[in-house]
Amino acid sequence: MSIGAQAVARCQAWRHPPFSDAPDGLSRRYLTPAHRAAITEMTGWMEAAGMAVRLDAAGTLIGRYEGTGSKTLLIGSHIDTVGDAGAYDGTLGVMLGLGCVEALAAKGRRLPFAIEILAFGDEEGSRFHSSMLGSRALAGTLASVPEIFDAAGVSLAEAMRGFGLDPTQLPLAARARDDVLLFLEPHIEQGPVLEAENLAVGIVTGIAAQTRLKVGLQGMANHAGTTPMHLRRDALAAAAEAMLALEEIALEAGIVGTVGAIEAFPGVSNVVPGRVSFSVDLRAPTEAVRDAGGEQFGKVLQEICGRRGIVAEVQTVQSLDACYCDAAAQKLLAQAVATCGVAPFYLPSGAGHDAMSVAALCPVAMLFIRCLKGISHNPAEHVEVQDVETAAQVMLAFFELLAGQ
After folding, report:
1. Which 3 state secondary structure label does DSSP give 401?
2. Which residue stretches of the chain have pLDDT < 50?
3. What is the pLDDT of residues 64-78, one digit of tens each?
4. Which position among 199, 240, 280, 366 has the lowest Cβ density within 10 Å, counted as fewest Cβ atoms?
């Protein structure tokens, strides 16, 4: 079986229990039984390929394939998913890295640098709503465990202990940078550009800046039948107006703004909602443009709430600067793509990736793989085996070019 076919088959096999927390559909969240099952199976594959395997203090699985020199190439992505997910987001990149190492091991090929395959446990933030915990810990930018909780009220520290990790040891997850050459993250595009260009793969130039906010609105819960409309302090109506304002701001500024989660309390049909919380995700090509959009949203939110008698509290959950991929690595990837008979094509990423966090540790590069209609974060996520095989061959060619340097 080819590297591409094997990677796709493995991703498909992980769509169901025990690799999913949900009986129907795919949901593999950080530090859950499904996450554990994935780690266990991948550990076996890594060891069979002759890799030394360890789990770091943040729950990132790391397999090391030794080389003949002292430097290390990092390759990987994440194995957690959103709820009701597709099979390939993140996971395909890890499977590709593993498959390339398996191919090297089958030939007894050792490169003048070691390869470490990284399977990060939390990129999506679908459990604790703070993403890239694993890659931030690896990069040394997450020195302590944040005081955050999942929907069931379980703290991150509690979840780590339940998984067999020690929260006090998190700083030990920081990777020494002395020997690291580069981090390469293969990933599905999650957009329609490569399909429109009829190309199997593309070279990423950079990743958009991102901010995640948690907005809390406090009004007054009251009887739905006896409270006149003009006397209400309806937190949900204020939230709805704020969401439409966010959409308008994003359209005018040429950025993207998303509300993906919302909770209203008390959450019954005959009570005016007195309290609402919702998420805001802002992304833009640069920090300045993103921050300007966020500032404008904050002003509009205060105007809406002032007019409606609502108290607003805005918390920044996460702020990630734009990430620019290494120019030298982009050139080598272009050469590798060309050797595989594909025209090199460059494109930016609007989606966030672990490479953004790892950039604090070392230079980063990304290889995008075409996906059907650009659909992602959806069970309809689909890739063609031949495209994945092309990506694998590009990666192997990239290794040889890097070795030649």
Report:
1. helix
2. none
3. 999 999 999 999 999
4. 240
Contact 76, 97 (CB under 8 A): yes
Cα dihedral sign, 53-55-57-58: positive
Q: CA 54 to CA 97: how far, in whole Å?
A: 16
- Torsion angle, alpha carbons of 283, 288, 291, 292, to 10: -110
The model's pLDDT over 151-174, given as tens digits with 9 standing for 90+, comes to: 999 999 999 999 999 999 999 999
Residues 35, 31: Cα–Cα separation, whole Å: 6
* CA terminus-to-terminus distance, the chain: 31
Which stretches of 250-392 are assigned E, i.e. beta strand? 256-258, 262-265, 271-272, 275-284, 311-320, 323-324, 346-349, 364-369
The answer, yes or no, to whether the previous bond of 266 is cis (omega within 30 of 0) is: yes
Q: Tokens standing for 38?
A: 């994935």
DSSP state, residue 141? -
Measured distance CA(66)–CA(111) in Å, rounded: 8
DSSP 328-340: HHHHHHHHHHHHT
Rounded to 5°, angle at Cα 149 from 148 and 150: 140
Domains of the chain: 3-208+322-404 (3.40.630.10), 210-320 (3.30.70.360)
Sign of CA dihedral 66, 117, 348, 249: negative
CA dihedral 116→96→60→10, nearest 10 degrees, is -140
pLDDT at 129: 79
Q: Can you give the pLDDT at residue 130? A: 81
DSSP 175: P
The count of residues in the chain is 405
**Contact between residue 46 and residue 98 where contact means Cβ atoms under 8 Å apart:** yes
Please, are residues 97 and 88 in contact by the beta-carbon 8 Å criterion?
Answer: no
Nearest in space to 153 (alpha carbons), one of 128, 176, 136: 128
Q: Pinpoint the alpha helices (H) of 73-186.
A: 91-106, 133-139, 156-162
Task: State how far the Cα of 77 lies from the Cα of 38, in Å rounded to an integer.
Answer: 14
Q: What is the pLDDT of residue 57?
A: 97
pLDDT at 162: 97
Element (H, E) at 9: helix 3-13
Residue 374's SS3 state is helix
Q: How far apart are CA 369 and CA 384, in angstroms?
A: 9
Q: Under a CB-based contact definition with an 8 Å cutoff, are residues 358 and 212 in contact?
A: no
Place of tokens 């990149």: 93
Distance of CA 162 to the CA centre of its chain: 23
